[in-house]
Amino acid sequence: MRRLFGSVRARATLGAALVVAVALAMAGAAVLLSLRSNLIDQADTQAERSARSVAGLLSNGTAYDKLDLDEDNPVQVVAANGTLLAVSDGLEEISGTATDAVKPVASAGGTGDSGDGDSDDDADDSDGDTALEPGEIDDEATFTDGTATVEGETSDYRFAALQVETRDGDRLTVYAGESLETEESAVNTALTVMLIGFPLLLGVVAAATWLVTRRALRPVEGIRREMAAITASEDLARRVPEPDTHDEVARLARTTNQTLAALETSVERQRRFVADASHELRSPIASLRTQLEVGAAHPELLDVPGAVEDTVRLQRLAADLLLLARLDAGEGPGATRLDLAEVARREARGRDGVTVEASEGVESEGVEVAGSRGQLERVIGNLLDNGQRHARSAVTVSVRRDGAWAVVEVADDGDGVPGADRERIFERFVRLDEARSRDDGGAGLGLAIARDVAARHGGTLTVRDAPAGGALFELRLPLAV
Fold this sequence. Notes:
Layout: H1 8-59, E1 75-79, E2 84-87, E3 91-95, H2 117-127, E4 142-150, E5 153-165, E6 171-179, H3 181-233, H4 248-297, H5 304-328, E7 336-339, H6 340-348, E8 354-358, H7 362-365, E9 368-371, H8 373-390, E10 395-402, E11 405-412, H9 446-456, E12 460-465, E13 471-478
Parallel strand pairs: 8-10
Antiparallel strand pairs: 1-2, 1-6, 3-4, 4-5, 5-6, 7-9, 10-11, 11-13, 12-13
């Protein structure tokens, strides 16, 4: 049971059934109340019509024993003092009117034997009844619920009570009942139809929801199975099926495939990174080992400067790999405020052929950015190393403001970077053909590190042709606020 209702299809079906059930219950209650109200109104109208018919005869002076009373429904004529003056034939029991008497006590000859008219008027006035003129019928009838037994059959009735003043000044009340059997029958029939029809309708809704949800979720199950297969096979080249629709499931499939593609690219990039790192580390380690082994066997042949150079190179490569690993792990840039002009001057100090230029206002105000001092020093240092490696004679560093940006430009007078390679040089372990010599070039990590650091500081690093020839690297970082 828990597994069944753990599925989206089961929950959707149950939810739809509950919503429809509540809606049907509310609608059914409203229909029954409206039907009952309308039928009671009809009964009130019919009862009042019968009461007015009898009241009209009384107002014209018709004797009690001459009244044309409805034999199918109960009718009573009651005096102000509660005396039953006339009653319809066949009435055996009654409740819900002013008296439960079923035998009249009035004289058989007229309408004036109900008692003293003056005392009746006084009673009417004391009860707050509507003042009527002789022969007048009250405009408003009152209604009550009750029961009556007519010719042995007991039913519920709706009684209309209507007051009338006779020509002799007697205040009378006519009670006329209308059976509620039709109302009860109609309500019971409607209730029976609802009790039978509503469950059937709920069943149809649940079945339709189950089938529609099953059809809608079928592509999701296909995506799940394919993802499970990809997980089991570890084949990131596989893709989930994309339904030929434009709904949320199709968008989910496309997003899943995009995620798989990005994951495949990332994993492939990591594999290349590990392979390239292993290759780059192998050379200095092998060279250092060879020199140490030769030195151990023949101390006089030990190349100490070469061993130191290989060790330094190995140390730098390890530091670069460690920094890349921290950047890939999402290491934040920090929030230290530093002056890029000062950083550029400090990194350029002691480098042959490197000059630093600052635009007007930078010398006095500085160019402050927020971030990691160590990482930004590494960026500018890597750009200077790259510039010196490819320059013929000079490298120029300029620092300026450009709106909300701090801009550092490093230009050299070398051969420049071909247009086709201007993005490729920022990839890891990439070195152009003329820079592939490990003696002249690095491991191909400097520019990759520089761009990654710039991006994590909210900036950019691009390359274009320098005005005087060579390459110009432009670093843009947001100014500190």
